[in-house]
Amino acid sequence: MSALLEINAARREFVTPEGGRLAALDGVDLTVGANEFVTLLGPSGCGKTTLLRAISGFEMLDSGTMRLGGADLTVLPPFRRPVNTVFQSYALFGHMTVARNVGYALEVAGASRTVREGQVAEALEKVGLSGLGARRPGQLSGGQRQRVALARAIIAKPRLLLLDEPLSALDRNLRQQMQLELKTLQHSLGIAFIFVTHDQEEALTMSDRIVVMRAGRVEQIGTPRDIYRHPRNRFVAEFIGETNLFAVTVDRIEGSLALARTGEGVEMHLPATGRSVGERVTAILRPTDFTLGNGGIPGRVTRVVYLGSDLYIFVQPQTGGPEIRVIARDGAGTEEGAAVHLAHDPTRVHVLEAM
Amino acid sequence: MRNPAGWAALTAFSLVFFAFIYAPLFVIIGYSFNSNPVNMMIWEHFTFDWYTGLLGLSNRATDVSNRAAYVESTDQMLAALRTSLTVAVITTTISTVIGTATAIALARYRFRLRGIYNGFLMLPMMMPDIVLGIGLLIFFVSIGMKLSMLTIIIGHCTFLTSYVFIIVQARIAGLDPALEEASADLGASEWVTLRKVLLPQLAPGILGGALLAFVISMDDLVITYFVSGTGDTTLPVFIFGMIRRGVKPEINAIATLIILASVVIAAFGLWLRSRKAD
Fold this sequence. Notes:
The complex is a heterodimer of chains A (about 350) and B (about 280).
Chain A: E1 3-15, E2 21-33, E3 37-41, H1 48-56, E4 63-68, E5 71-72, E6 83-86, H2 98-102, H3 104-109, H4 113-126, H5 142-154, E7 160-164, H6 172-189, E8 192-197, H7 200-206, E9 209-214, E10 217-222, H8 224-229, H9 234-239, E11 244-254, E12 257-262, E13 267-271, E14 280-285, E15 290-293, E16 297-306, E17 310-317, E18 324-329, E19 339-344, E20 350-352
Parallel strand pairs in A: 3-8, 3-9, 6-7, 7-8
Antiparallel strand pairs in A: 1-2, 1-4, 4-5, 9-10, 11-12, 11-14, 12-13, 14-20, 15-19, 16-17, 16-19, 17-18
Chain B: H1 4-31, H2 49-54, H3 67-108, H4 114-126, H5 129-142, H6 149-173, H7 178-185, H8 190-219, H9 222-227, H10 235-244, H11 249-274
Helix pairs in contact in B: 1-11, 3-6, 3-8, 3-10, 4-6, 6-8, 7-8, 8-11
């Protein structure tokens, strides 16, 4: 993977209204490959939008460097950077037609009318809006405006497209459809996308790699599968998907399995690799990692949420401790008050050494 | 639930309210067609004489025995109208350019004393006209500047710039800053962004401000009264002087024409505002 964008030790501080200093970017390192779909994910205020704005040039770094395809970007103003942005508010020019909006980058660059018309038609076709060039943005639906913003951003053939929560204003069905379309478009354009979102589901669906951020720092960078199955810490584990966390002490080791126990007495098996008796660790199990059977953790169903083909159930362990969240097939013995046993595959347990 | 008595009272109140505002205007319009030259409160019969007289098309005058004096005053009035229009066009242009540029600068750039600039720009609007008028007069006299059309123009610009500034500023405040960012992101320099995105987006506000400045400049009496010299006088100042020498029927005709012009300009302004600028 050749690196397209390289960010080193990026720092950016803001002065808070109270007069303090807040590091929106606190030493961020990030490398993005030429055809990669990278998502910046994190709660609001984590610095993901500042990082995106630093790449587009709307925020200058206090320190650190930024290179795109080997060229130094760090001090270039936005209009000299070969990256384009799809804004959260779309930021379409209401006084121009759709076609002129889409062709704006070419118009500014001084391209001739015939060149512009050809490329605008091509860009509109790519986003499925052929024939709407003469309309005004005000006459379009939210989804169509989104596509105009997209067409406008890709017409200058940037090597890197930045997307700032572009789907947040769309309803759920349209959002899911656009997620797939964006992914397809990224493949067909063969360029890198950096996508900002606070929606972890969106991040898991679309990304080649996810960058989880908190308080101006990168918590973890990895593939969606990596991040979901092997979160590096509690924050990542809890931010991505539903999680059951167990603070356990390793009781004994039997071959490839370690038997561990929570303070309340809930017992579970972990992979033995790297474990030692008496060690205190955090065991992570996703709601889908449990199966309802005869063996395993005994408990009682306290609440059932119907999801369709699956059920989301809350199980109170018999020995006490926090409720365990489980996704189970609709059917056998999952009504409220039912006594159940929760079995799990020990290899599915992810262990955090830090508590 | 509708209370019939209350509803009737409210209706009556509204009618009286509008009558108070518009009755004087209709009285003036009505009497501008009254042919009685001596006592214009007594209706004689319908005539266009005062209008044609104003435009120098007929010789009928208030004081038939003193035709020469009347014709002279008609010329003076047309000269005053010309001065008014010249002043209004020039001040509107200057204050629109300065007001718009200031509004953009204060909204988009951070610099020292920004808040104080803002306050100073509001001040001329809130200051009583008479204070501003006296202040300007003393200022012009103290620097030895002869009162002329130039002093009227400078005087008008001092407060009209504030009006344009406030209207354009309101428009900028409602503008998505991402529009300018999008323009920069697509390769446009600040200058190109100003020309292709910011000014077109602000156009309704700028036009509205210019229209307001034009109307206020045409209408201003108090400040102009202080800063106009003997040579150049504007229409409001001329009418004011005319009334002091006694009310002539021509004044009704002048007033009616001004009302007509105001309605046309106001309608144009409303039409501009109603055009959706998204």
